[in-house]
Structure formats: structure tokens, C-alpha cells
Specification:
single chain, alpha/beta, DNA polymerase, domain 1, Beta Polymerase, domain 2, five-stranded mixed β-sheet, 17 strands, 13% strand
Length: 579
Amino acid sequence: MKNADIAAVLSETGTLLEIKGENPFKVRAYERAAESIRNLTQDVAEIREAGDLRSLPSIGGGIADKIAELLDTGKCTHHQELLSEFPETVFDMLRIPGVGPKTAKTLIEREGIASVEQLESAARAGRLRELPGMGEKTEQEILRGIAHLREYSKRTNLGLAWTIAEGIMEQLREDAPVDDMEAAGSLRRMKETIGDIDILITSDHPEAVMDRFVGLDLVAEILVHGATKSSVLTGAGVQADLRVVPPESFGAALQYFTGSKEHNVRLRDLAVRKKIKLNEYGVFRVKGEREERVGGRLEEEMYDALGLPLIPPELREDQGEIEAARDGQLPQLIEVGDIRGDLQMHSTWSDGGSTIEEMARAAKALGYRYIAVTDHSPSQTVANGLSVERLRERRKEIAAARRAIPGIGILDATEVDIKRDGSLDYPEEVLAELDFVVASVHSGWKMERAAMTERIIKAMENPLVDGIAHPTGRLIGQREPFEVDMEAVLKAAASLGVAMEINAHPDRLDLKDVHARRAKELGVKLMINTDAHAADQLQLMHFGVATARRGWIEPGDVLNTLPISRLRRRRAKSSRKRG
């Protein structure tokens, strides 16, 4: 079994134990073990062969035995016994935002509800409001959560879609006679969720390419197998379409199938006024009954024919990009190469799977000049949050890593919890010892909008807070953002000089693109961080950069494009201003 499969079994075990009302310490042990396995950069089977599984963070003897059983048999007896006590549909119900194990326990025990359909029926009938800890507001939240779940079930997380598309294209480049090849559609525009994966190619041997495509290992079902177009359903349940187009039309097809629909409609309106025909085959100048091809091999030719520069795919949403292009006002969008450091990540001191030295070496290999190690604060017990004593003890390992790895700055930092009253999870004197402080909300998701807004702004008023991490708390397709007046938060951030994070993890992408654009308009500095919990997750940065690009963000808008010396000076100046 792979690490992800083992982590899923451990996580499910913890969830089922919590539904049963088992000891919270036992539940937390499984949660922490699952997170530990999930964040490993080495295969669990290899670790087992090399030594004792109990050497891994958060893995005790009992859980180590269960991991060994999974590796040997592919199953865990304890997990199977727990599964037999509940309907299979209970995990579908747990995917609904707002329905956790405790709520599921109440629903199962009091009403016999263990499926999404049963839950929706009960909520619409008003049967939930009489249950302990619930009410009419909870009913409405659950109905919204069900709608949210169904909406996202039709689309795929950007990270998963990107991985699948990259895998397909890598295999086709190696094994098939492909010339040009690009992903199109919402994936190329880097939207946070994707419908189908669209890939365009040119080839002198299209039938051979199509045969290889439908024969890929990741294909679960062949939907269409044609000479110029094929469609498959992958094992992850994502549809992928492959089209072969003539070389002279590749740029035109790429522009057309990238979209968005609204952007393309606007382009075609412009074309009509210029007596030009624009479609997926090319761009043609209309002269009476004749059509003269004036472009289509390159995507730039489609825009050049309209008197426009090439508009980056991430901007093609009919949100002012055509007017900006016409007026020469397109932003010089940030690129991954502009990032000089990553200002949020976690090590084995809290819930990470890599040591500080491993994180620093991986960051240096990416060309970064600095990192901030932001392990969790004490309130995050499930994430092994650091007490003041452990935070100070960690300083020794940071100092050792600095000596071992010249050429990269390692900031002694924290992701400190914002408590319900807006105070922080470490005392002032402890925060003052640190090089960088990001603050975030990890609890109290259901606070009223005004109270949550006040909570975050109060935290920002602390002169030792440099930035707010994942500012709306959302997990795409899993948990809706908490209620907060983002306009008020962004205006406060602009006034106080506090940076807002774009969290690059594809499950978060928080701030989202529209909020990032508004932050730029207000003069708020952003920071694009991976929130990496293992060294290989530092590679997620490009998702955050893509979200920033969708928000029209330029390098000068982003804190971690600065050299470390300027970052330190800005931090000191901002803290003095607030102090």
C-alpha cells in the first residue's frame, strides 16, 4: 500500500472511533499518525525494511502494528471491524461541510441517519432542529453544505487535475509520436476547480497517439476512441479528452479551447467589427465571398489580428483584461521565478514530515534564498503544537541547520493561533523573540461574521504579527470559508501593513483570486506560501503563483519576492508603525 492509502485507513479509523465516542486521546493518536504518514517523503514500506516504524513521528507501538498489517495484507482488522458497525454511506455524509464525527454520532444514534439523502430529507422536514446542539440555523447550514458538496462533486480540485494531466502528457511525450501538445480549458487558466481535462496535440500519426492514450494505465473506462478525438474516464473519476488538430490551426485551437467562453465571445465581437473571422481553425480576413487565412499556427496571431497583445491564459475571464490589453495596461504578472522564499512551512517539530534541515535543503534546491519555519502554536494539540519551551528548544535545530546549509536564511518563525477573542496563542515576549510571525484561525469556524471580522482585525493590530495565513479558512470542496467581512479585513491590513497570504496548497488557494485582486487595489502586500508539511510539498508554489496571476498580481505586490535584507527592514518598519 502507498503512504496515502495507509494514511486514509488511519484517518478513517480515528473518525469511526470518534463517532463511537471513544477516548479523545485515542482518536487524536490516529489523526496525528495519519498526518505523519501523509507528510512522509519516503515510502513507508522502505522505512519498515530499514528499521522500526515506531521511529516515525506520532507512531506508537499499536499503530505501528496496524501499519505493518496493512503493508502485509492490504487490510487492517481493526479498521474492517469498525467499518462493519456503520453503513458505507456515513463517509459521504462526513464530506458535507459542517458535519463532523460528533454531529454524525448524534444523527446516527438519535435519528438513524447515515446517508446524505436521509440527512437532506430530515433537514427539509425540520427534524434536525430538535436534536441536541442543533437548531434551525444548523439545518440551513447542513442544506447549504449538501448543495456545496454536490456543486464541487461535478468538478475536480486543481491539484488533482494538474497531476493527471501532467501524467498523461508525460507518457504521450515518451511513448507516442506527438509534436505540439498543450493542456487547454479551465486547467490552463488555472481555475481552482476543473471540469474535464482538455489536451490538444499535433501529430503526423494521430491514430497511434490515440491508441496510446486510451491504453494508459490511469484509464478506467474508454468513452470515445476516434482518429482525431478520444475521451476517457480516469481511475480518479476525471474525464480527459484528447484532440488532434492540424499544425496550422494549433494556436487557434489552443486559444479557442482555453476559453473562457465569456472571453472568447468578446474576442469574436471585436473580430466582427474588424471584418475578421475567428474560430478554432484560425483567423481569417473576410473579403467579400473569400476568406484569407492570416493566422492560426501560433496563439499570438489570434490576438495580433485584433490589435491586441497576447493575454495570459489566467486573465481570460472577461474581467477587464481585453480593455487593459487594448490600452496597454496589462499587468506584468508574477512568475514562479520571482519568488525568493517561502514564509510558511512546518517541520517534524509540529505536524510536518521533514526536518528543518531537509526543508531548508529542498528550498535551496529550488533557488530560494530564505524560508520561515512556522510550526504550530500550543493550541493546535492535534498538530503537535509547540509549547514555549519546545519553541525555544527548536532554536537549537534552526541554528544547526543554518551552520550546515550556507546560502539560505532560515527564519525562526511560527504560525500562531488567533484565539476567539483575537488574542494570540503565545505571550508578547515570546513572539518578540521570533524572526517572523503569521497568525491564523484554526477553531471557532461558526462565529458570526462581525465577531470573526473583529477577531482577525484585533490579531492584526498586534505589532508583532507580520501576516495572516489562509485568511478565510476554506478547504476547497471540503469546508466553506468562515463568515468574515473580507473588505474590512483587507482595509485593516492596508492600514496596518499586515500581509495577506495566498496559500498555495491546491486544497486551499486562500486568498482566492478575486480577494487577491482586491488586496492589490487596496495596496495590501501579499505573501505566497506553500504551507508545506514535507519537503516535496515546497513544489506546490506554482499553484499559489497561478492564483496570484488570476488576481492580476505583479512581483512588487508580493512580500516574498524581496531579498531577505529588505524583508527584514520592511518588517521592522511595519512593526514600529503599529507599535
